Sequence to fold (563 residues):
Amino acid sequence: MEWKPFYNNNKEGKLYVIPLGGIGEIGKNMTLIQYKDEIISIDVGLTFPGEDMLGIDLVIPDFNYVIKNSSKLKGIVLTHGHEDHIGALPYLYKEIPADIPMYGSKLTLALAKEKFERFDENVKHNFKEVKGRDKVKIGKYFEAEFIKTTHSISDTFAIAIHTPIGTIVHTGDFKIDLTPINNESTDFFKLAELGEKGVLFLMSDSTNAEREGYTMSERSVGEALQQECEKAKGRIVVAAFASHIHRLQQIIEVATNLGRKIAIDGRSMIRVVELASRLGYLKIEDNVLIDLKSVDNYKDEEIVLLCTGTQGEPMAALSRIANRTHKHINIKEGDTVIISATPIPGNEKAVYKTINRLIKNNAEVIYEKISGIHVSGHGSQDELKLMLNLVKPKFFMPVHGEYKHLKKHKDMALAVGIPEENIIISENGLKIEITKNNAKISGKVPSGITLIDGLGIGDIGNIVLRDRQHLAQDGIVIVVITISKKDGEILAGPDIITRGFVYARESGDLIRGTESLIKEELSKYKKVTEWAVLKSAVRDITRGYLYEQTKRNPIILPIIMEV
Fold:
């Protein structure tokens, strides 16, 4: 195959593509397109913390470059409504002018609006609803064209950005589902039309680059769910992602066909079902939904519970059911639990812990490893090759994947005929400079992660995380010394308090030995005039003795009290 795209615009210039997230990782997707004095962003997503990020709630991109250049930011275009693509929007809009427009589908903007409302009602936004095949002018240099694709959520777009030097295409998350639940299939015509006219640069989803063949259609899940639910004799508990509206629709249809009532649990599930029903994305017959509190008023064979907790989250509904701490549902023999999802890498241990507890409580548990009740929302290798053949880009950059996924996607691009020198594997923060005839990495902007802990945004850094890990591993020892406010004389102490290090009542010899050494040091001070010197001496003595006795390194916290 010979790749000779045609470009309508002959203007010279340089365009920059700057990923701030989503490269070398799956999550916090955000990519900037910059031409001269104007910038647009594709998505503003978040990710969830790893096991080493103790106490962290969310992880978002580093917005410093965007905030510094907020006067150049002319718009944000959204591919779809998943957290890893829209979840960080409120945090960004807290720092940039509220009138910067945000373009997305009806469902995507509805989900985004909910995030703004839960974040801070004082943070404003400027929503602009678009539909498939819409084109919108953004600033002087950009025109965004929205192209319908299929994924695991409704209203998903690939986005073509028409610029003075050529067309940039970002696929967003996609799969090629030829029998989609909502009968809204991928707009092959538009993708092929773009490819025929000439696409300068393509960024494409790499999540399933290691999987051969095609990803199965979402409809196959409905058939598997029907079969499993028909076999169930008692109550059915189905756990699914709240945002997977096509999956929720199939679960609702199966329950309705079997004459079962549906109770919903989990805050995100309740919110999404209410929102999607109101907007017409979920169709639920009258009198099918019942209140969770009324489940016991029905026979077991009349009930389906739809809930959250597919990833083993400790406070999610399914985990509470498995732990027998749920207020309304206790698992019993005869119940069937269906987990309609696959574990996200890193969550496997928590998921299988939940499965084992459910089985121990005599439930029949159906999960993805041994059934067909889940399919991915991302395209496999043949779909990725099909996208490359439809769009026919001159330059290509795989996105939305770990490095191994990006490398595998590069191999596929080579196989369909894109020259190796025209393929870029990037990193977050790198500036890819694009002209009509060349694409290369030409610099770097500030990038990385910002950690969210409660109301704190970015106030938790590596040092705090290190201390949290230290506390988790070795605990803390507090040494309290009391001195006279009047003359600095040592009045009492040391008093030793431990948390997470040893149990004081069972470690009397260790505590007494520590106190003895510290008292010996304190005897050198008739008066305390330099607190820092005393604290340092106490810390060093305590650390050395405790390590010698236990081979552990707790945090040592000397406290001097004046009375």
User: Anything to note?
Assistant: Confidence is low (pLDDT under 50) at residues 1-10. The radius of gyration is 29 Å.
